[in-house]
Design brief:
alpha/beta, 7 strands, 5-stranded mixed sheet, 26% strand
């Protein structure tokens, strides 16, 4: 189950993607499909088949984004969050082996194509919530339990 939270930046990115798909890409692909269909036999027309498939992909993504944006709650930064790990925080952690990680805790829909974002629903994020610099968090996963120490917490403002 994914928590329906998102940062302001993530919400704006999804809204921009929806606008780009609906206003620019979809009309362009629709023109190509219409043009390719006017050429005749559609069963052997690669332009028609490819663009028709792309149009279905766009429509599927548009439906998902509209449903998603309606259900998401934008979480804004508050000054009272300073010094503790909450949604939207950039956190730097270190384990006993000296391995250091830096990531931002965000909503599920923001983590794709980003190596420095983790979902609020991940075991790491759940273990870190409400902790402060210097605290330790035990992260339980299928691979076992690892202790992480919080070195730094910052927020985008």
């Amino acid at each position: 189950m994914k928590t329906p939270l998102i940062t302001r930046q993530g919400y704006d990115d999804l809204q921009n993607e929806l606008d780009e798909l609906w206003r620019f890409e979809r009309p362009e692909i629709t023109k190509k499909v219409t043009w390719a269909a006017s050429l005749g036999d559609r069963s052997e027309n690669a332009d028609y088949q490819y663009n028709k498939k792309r149009l279905r992909e766009i429509d599927r993504r548009v439906r998902y984004l509209r449903r998603c944006l309606d259900n998401l709650k934008v979480v804004e930064h508050h000054a009272d969050q300073e010094g503790k790990v909450f949604f939207g925080a950039w956190v730097e952690v270190e384990n006993d082996d000296g391995k250091t990680l830096r990531f931002r805790i965000v909503g599920y829909d923001e983590i794709f194509n980003r190596n420095d974002y983790i979902s609020i629903d991940s075991p790491m994020a759940r273990a870190l919530l409400k902790k402060q610099v210097g605290d330790e968090a035990e992260v339980r996963t299928d691979a076992g339990t690892i202790t992480w120490y919080i070195n730094n917490i910052t927020y985008d403002k």
